[in-house]
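This entry is listed below:
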Amino acid sequence: MFSGGDGSESKPFLIKTAQDLIDVRTKNQENPMHHYKQVANIDLTGVNWLPIGDASMGSPFMGTFDGDGYKISYLTINNDYEHSGFIAIAVNATLVNIMIDNATIANTLYAWIGILAAQTQGCTITNCHVAGTIDATNVDSSSGGLVSSAGAGTIINKCSAHVEIKSALAGGFVCYSYAKIKDCYAIGKIGGVQDEYDPAEKFLYAGTFARHLYDGSVENCYTNVELYDYEDGQKSLYIFAENLGAQITSCYSDITGGAMRQEWSSDKVYTVDSFTRGTDNNLYVNDKMQNKEDYDYWDPAWNSTGPPSWWPGPFYRAKPISGEIWSRYWKQVTSSTHPESRITVEMKKKSTFIDWDFDKVWTIDEGKDYPRFKLNITQIKCKRMPLTNYRR
């Protein structure tokens, strides 16, 4: 079993072949705290992957897996698992340098689905990159490009997800998070799914980066994810994420690639402490989210200025107004309850982005362009694959 090593920290099991990788799952049932190191690219064509650390087969994964920059290609999961991904559940594990390319996951159960891992708790995830498709046809399933649920104590640094997701509950990078996330990005598409019991009903509750951020932090992160296929359905769409308690700093949602191809409406919600670049020459200002009586209220006098200082927050809904200003940066104003938005000219100035790291993370062509992500993070581009297993 394995191509070398004894599973210790100094002599990890060496993973060279597809069978070696399959054997990680078996060995994990014996001892979940072994160390593994990948030493070659691995092609999983023809293998119907069973996730490592599946709850139904014993312990979660609690060891170390170092991909060493080698690829795992064509990871395919066609069977239904409650926790679906390369790893099902990881607890206090270390996942580093893992590259998963052209993954395909299809699931019809109520499930947690993430290409790298379905659920993590207390894990350290560094320099891991995934690309592929997720097809979750059960409207109660939760899908995230990298991880579905990143639990408390999880730290994620310098990771990326290049994904195409069909899921009613989804985030381009994570679906739900209590984690500390830094220097990460997501690129791709998220589409809604139909209710198998009512084919006329469609669901999409999603954010381009995350559906819900419950706690933890998100710093220096970027998304360019299209949200689509949600017309005439039940939906709640977030330009970055619905923030329920995380600290968000220096985050950027570039939707020029078509994050919202359909007409903008009050269903799209901006996140404070993030920057959104729009798709046309409309001015996107803030619409109040408070209670049913004034849920859709908007004073035309606010079209060019945004809401006044007494307008309550912290969340504001997007509302399209004709005008020349179309990109906005929301920053919570000190000793105030509303976020302050910046106009396009201001957003092309470095001085606007207070506390953003322009030495290592961001770059800007002063007066000519918006901030750009310059971190040297490996990017895996997925081949555009049809969702052949999409079941209605």
Remarks:
- Confidence is low (pLDDT under 50) at residues 257-270, 278-297, 312-339, 381-392.
- The radius of gyration is 21 Å.
- Helices lie at 18-30, 344-347.
- Residues 40 and 238 are 39 Å apart (CA to CA).
